[in-house]
Write a structure and sequence with these properties.
heterotrimer; A alpha/beta (389); B alpha+beta (87); C alpha+beta (47); B: 87 residues; alpha+beta; 3-stranded antiparallel beta sheet; two-stranded antiparallel ribbon; 3 helices; 5 strands; 26% strand; globular; C: 47 residues; 1 helix; 11% strand; elongated; disordered N terminus
Chain lengths: 389, 87, 47
């Protein structure tokens, strides 16, 4: 057999990926909009179950498709995925089809019995959501008792010998000073720490101005992450790569290219941070299922075209930051071919000043409970004036 | 990697063809490895038919020593990543 | 719902298309570039 090595140069990986793949590499699947919590920044505006949720059989059909496509890894979330009665059935079905699963949970329902059951499964990662290294910082964001619930869940996983799990933190103005404490907490459980970027998605848009990092904090978190190669970021800080060496990861927006979201009613979005009609590619219940949406939807085809640099053309940092996060620009009313609001060169601030606030988009799916996290929205301001509606 | 030993694709790996080559995912370590040319992918698949890495590479490069070194180095990275293993 | 479970890989572009589109004139690449490794957590858009 003669295997020819082409004399054509091998393009950079990032260039090859931007043209799209036959299937996502990994992706997010929100199983339900129901949730026992009402976190102020919830990217999926979860709270109440949607009556059109995929049935168990429909969910299994999606898993069959993911297996056939060889999607290696699915992050299952919601809402709170443990709220679904068929959660373990679906989990075991996916694992049986060799689709790796990580699920994100607030830990309330992760009791000793569930921890033992989870410990018996292979190809399974668990991610516990926490936004403060103590209850005083965490609970105003996630709800009274939510910090304690995570500690309990971690104790249950440890007692059940689950092995390594992850703690996932959304970096906010109020918790960025606690990065070392988060690391220590994770280390004390032998857990991996994950720190991700806050986007103004879902309910996040209501608290974004109060919770987003300042430019100083952005530089702090970049420096800290560069010194912590064991801390995961989900590649969510690639806009900070303009500050110096790139953080580990693909350093590009994966929406519609290497990742996507399947929501609880089967809608397919470019990523979980753009749950909005403008970024909805199709539905898994349509003929051809998820595969057809991934491969042929007009939205994903347009996302896979090389991006227009637009207003960022003349900036030398563009190659590193790629103009930042599409979702963050969309929900702050900025043009997608311009700078990210958190552009480290300051071009985002200029652009934000020109935005007509009355035309800033909101998520087109809102499953928040009617009572709403009103009291929490006030308390997170911590001394400054309350966020107005 | 011992290039004189017979090798094969690891059973802990999911290998998925792509236009540029392939992606290999290790289910235990969660590491993802990109094989960036189709030629390398074919070579990996061919390993199981030869009794050493060296003989598989020799068959692939038809006397080109430079290419042979290139491939052996690439296969060595794949062995380190657990994508291929001795059989 | 009738998703297909018999899916064959159907690449939208070929490696040649991609290389042509990039249009670089480099020499044959060094061996480090034939293999690249990344964490499954290393792609943006998964929470």
């Amino acid at each position: 057999m003669n295997v020819e090595l082409t004399k054509k140069p091998v393009p950079r990986l990032v260039d090859q990926l931007q043209y799209g793949l036959s299937a996502p590499i990994c992706m997010t699947w929100e199983l339900t909009y129901a949730c026992n919590l009402e976190c102020v920044h919830c990217l999926s505006s979860s709270g109440q179950r949607d009556p059109r949720e995929l049935t168990t059989d429909e969910a299994k059909a999606v898993i069959d498709e993911l297996a056939a496509l060889q999607v290696f890894y699915v992050n299952v979330g919601g809402g709170e995925p443990l709220v679904r009665r068929d959660f373990f059935e679906l989990l075991e079905y996916a694992i049986g089809r060799r689709v790796g699963v990580k699920f994100s949970t607030n830990g309330y329902l992760l009791d000793e019995a569930k921890a033992k059951r989870l410990a018996e499964l292979d190809y399974l990662d668990i991610q516990l959501s926490l936004d403060g290294a103590d209850a005083a910082t965490n609970d105003p964001i996630r709800g009274a008792g939510s910090y304690a619930a995570v500690i309990r869940a971690m104790d249950n996983l440890r007692a059940a010998n689950f092995g390594e799990f992850k703690i996932s933190v959304v970096a906010t103005r109020h918790n960025v000073s606690q990065l070392d404490e988060f690391k220590a907490l994770a280390d004390s459980y032998g857990a991996q720490l994950r720190v991700t970027r806050l986007r103004p998605s879902g309910r996040g848009v209501d608290v974004y101005q109060d919770l987003r990092l300042t430019q100083t904090q952005q530089r702090e978190i970049y420096t800290w992450l560069m010194g912590q190669p064991d801390v995961l970021t989900g590649d969510s800080f690639f806009h900070l790569s303009a500050l110096g060496d790139a953080l580990p990861g693909l350093n590009l927006c994966g929406a519609g290219r290497v990742v996507c979201l399947i929501d609880p009613v089967g809608d397919v979005y470019a990523c979980p941070f753009v749950i909005h009609d403008e970024f909805m590619a199709g539905n898994v219940r349509d003929e051809g299922g998820f595969s057809k949406v991934w491969r042929e939807s007009a939205l994903f085809e347009s996302l896979r075209e090389p991006g227009a640099e637009g207003a960022c053309t003349s900036c030398g940092a563009y190659d590193a930051c790629k103009g930042g996060c599409m979702a963050t620009k969309f929900f702050t009313g900025l043009p997608l071919d311009g700078p990210d609001p958190d552009c480290v060169k300051g071009f985002g601030e200029e652009a934000m000043a020109a935005v007509d606030q009355s035309h800033v988009p909101h998520s087109t799916q809102d499953h928040s409970k009617p009572s709403g996290p009103q009291s929490q929205r006030v308390s997170i301001s911590l001394g400054s004036k309350p966020a107005s509606n | 990697m011992n290039p004189r030993a017979p090798h094969q694709l690891s059973s802990r790996i999911g290998l998925r063809p792509e236009p540029f080559g392939a992606m290999a995912y290790h289910f235990d370590t969660r590491r993802l490895v990109f094989l960036k040319t189709p030629a390398l992918v074919e070579l990996v698949h061919s390993l199981v038919d030869y009794d050493s890495v060296n003989s598989a590479v020799a068959a692939a490069v038809d006397g080109d020593e430079h290419k042979a070194n290139l491939y052996v180095t690439a296969l060595s990275s794949l062995a380190d990543a657990g994508v291929i293993c001795e059989r | 719902m009738s998703p297909s479970t018999d899916v064959s890989p159907a690449p939208a572009t070929t490696a040649t298309d991609v290389a042509d589109a990039i249009g670089t004139d480099d020499e044959l690449v060094e061996e480090e570039l034939l293999v690249e490794e990344i964490s499954i957590d290393g792609m943006c858009g998964v929470y």
